[in-house]
Amino acid sequence: MRSSAGSSRTSQVACSPSTPSPTSSASTRGSASSAAGRTFSRTGSSTSRCAGRPARPAAEPFPGGAAPESRIPARTVPTTDPEESPVHIAVIGAGVLGLCTALHLAERGEDVVLLEAAHPFAGASGRSFAWINANHKEPRAYYDLNAAGIAAHHRLQERLAAHGRWFHPSGGILVDTGPDRIRTYEERSAEARAYGYPCREIDRAELEALEPAVDWPDSADGGLLFEAEGYADAAFFRDTLLSALADRGIAPRIITVESWQAAGDGLDLHLAGGEVLSVDRAVLAAGAASREIAARSGALVSVADLRERSARTHSFLGITEPVDTPPLDIELHRVIVSDRMNVRPQHDGRLLVQVPSVEHRTAEQSTAEQLAEVRAEMDAVLAEFFGDRARLESVTLSGRSLPDDELTIAGFLDEQQRVYALVTHSGMTLAPHLGEVAAAEVTGTPDPGLKLFRPGRFARRRAQADGAGDGEATAGTREEFIGRQ
Which of 370, 449, 397 has the alpha carbon at shortest distance from 140? Predict the structure, then answer.
C-alpha cells in the first residue's frame, strides 16, 4: 500500500493519545491526548528545496539570571514566504528531539508528518534524569551546543508558557564527599571559568542554607553552585510539545518505519505492514533505533547497540514515593550531583535518583531479584542524605541514545540531502536548540555550529582505521566523573 505526499498530495495523520512517561505522571494540561480519535488532513507540496532564511545576528539576553557563555547565537523562527510551497517532511521518532524538530519545522510552515513506533517519549526521553546543564562538556564545541540548549529552553518555555511550565532553572549543586574533593572543585571550577559557565564555590553553611532538607554527611564540607542549570519535568515537556503540535494539526502516527529509499526527487519510507509513504525529506530522530533503521537503508548512524548492555549504554533511574507531605516534608530546590548520588525534585512530590555505585550492574541480566537488590542498594545511599524520610517506589533500567564517540550526530546522511540524522546523548538539554537548527538545515540553512557533529565522521574514521590495518574504529571509552549521565 502506498501513501504519497507532495504537490497535490494529501497525507492522513492519525492522532494518538499521549502516554504517561515511566518517570512521571502525565500532565492533564492541554495534552495532545485531547485530540485522540481525530484525523487531520494535511495537503503536501512540490519537492523544491526551500530557500535559506537568515538567522538572528546576535543572541538575546539570557532570561532568568546568569547565562552560560556560548558562541552559538540565538535564532528567530522565520516567516514562511506565502508564495513558497511547504516541503513534506517526515520526522521519525517522537522522543524529545523528534517532537522539538517537528514543532520547529511546523512553525516554519512545512508540511510535517510525525511517525513513532510505540508512543511519545517511549525511549530514553521518558526515562531521563532530565538535568538541564552544560557541565563538564568537552570539547568546547560540545559545551557551546549544550549552553545553547539551556538558552533555547528559556526561549521555548517563554514562548509556550500558556501550555504550562516544564523547565525549572533552579541551579545545580555539585558535591564531592571523597578524599580528592579539593582537587575536584579546583578542576571543575577552573573549567567552568574558562568556558564562561557560571559557577561559584560554596561552604558548608551555604550548602545547608540552600538545601536544608538534606542530611549532608560530615564529609560534605562545601561544593560548587552552577547557577545556570536546572531540570525539566519530562512528562510536562512532552505534553506541552504534543499540545503545541496539535494546535497545528499534527499528532504522532503510531507505526514503525522499517527503512527508506530514494525515489525521484524524494523518498519512499517503508512502514510496517508493507505501506510506503512518499515524502520530500526525512529527519531520523529515533534514538538508539536510528542505528538499525539506517542500516536497513544502507546508511551508517553510529549509535550504541542497546542489546550489548554496560554502564556506558545503560543506567538505573530510581523514583521515590512522594516526600513533600507531612511527616516527611522534603522540599528539594535544585539538582544535586555528587560522588554518592544524583537527586532532583519532580512536580508530583517525588524525587528522581541515580546512584553511581550500582551502575556496573546494568550489564547483568535483568530479573525481579536483581532489580530488588539494586533498589535496596540505592535505598541505602538515599538514606545517607535523607534518613528514613525517602524510599524508592520503583527502579527502571534505561538505555541511552549514545553515539559511539558520545558526541551529537546532526546532519544529512546522503549527498542529495534527503535524510537528516539527529541523535544525541543529553537530548533533554539539547533538544530545543537542536530541533531549531535541524529544522533550519533541513530547509536549506546550514549551521556552522554543527560542523564537528556531522554523521560522516564515523565513516571517515573507519576508513582511516582500515587503512592502518586496525579494523573498525572503536566506540569511545567511559570516563567516570561526578555528574556523569
Answer: 449
Length reported for the chain: 485
Which of 447, 446, 443, 445 lies closest to 50 in space, CA to CA?
443
The predicted pLDDT at position 77 comes to 54
CA within 13 Å, CB half, 307: 3
Residue 173, beta-bridge partner list: 225, 336
**Domain 173-227+307-399 fold:** D-Amino Acid Oxidase; Chain A, domain 2 (3.30.9)
pTM for the complete prediction? 0.85
Q: Residue 122 — left, alpha, or beta (φ > 0 → left; ψ -120 to 50 → alpha)? A: alpha
Taking the C-alpha atoms of residue 410 and residue 400, their distance in angstroms, rounded to an integer, is 17
Using alpha carbons, select from 236, 32, 240 the residue that is nearest to residue 130: 236
- The span from the CA of 475 to the CA of 131, in Å, is 24
Residue type, 101: T
Rounded-to-integer distance, Cα 432 and Cα 446, Å: 17
**What average pLDDT does range 36-49 have in this prediction?**
31
Q: Which of 82-86, 322-326, 478-482 has the lowest mean pLDDT?
A: 82-86
List the Cα angle 483/181/399 in 5-degree steps.
15
* 25 pLDDT above the threshold of 70: no
In this predicted model, what pLDDT tens digit does every residue of 317-376 receive, in sequence order?
Answer: 999 999 998 888 899 999 999 999 999 999 999 999 999 999 999 999 999 999 999 999
Coil vs helix vs strand at 343: strand
Ramachandran angles phi, psi of 81, nearest 5°: -65, 125
467 contact partners, CB below 8 Å, separation of at least 6: none
Question: 146-170: per-residue pLDDT in tens?
Answer: 999 999 999 999 999 999 999 999 9
Q: What is the DSSP letter of 395?
A: E
Say how far apart CA 228 and CA 259 lie, in whole Å.
Answer: 40
Question: Can you tell me the distance from the alpha carbon of 125 to that of 122, in angstroms, rounded to the nearest whole number?
Answer: 7
Q: Where are the domains of the chain?
A: 85-171+231-305+401-463, 173-227+307-399
CA distance 430 to 411: 15
Instruction: Give the CATH fold of the 85-171+231-305+401-463 domain.
Output: FAD/NAD(P)-binding domain (3.50.50)
Determine the Cα–Cα distance for residues 368 and 382; give it in Å rounded to an integer: 21
CB atoms within 10 A of CB 55: 17
Contact 355, 371 (CB under 8 A): no
The predicted-structure confidence for 331-340, as pLDDT tens digits, reads as follows: 999 999 999 9
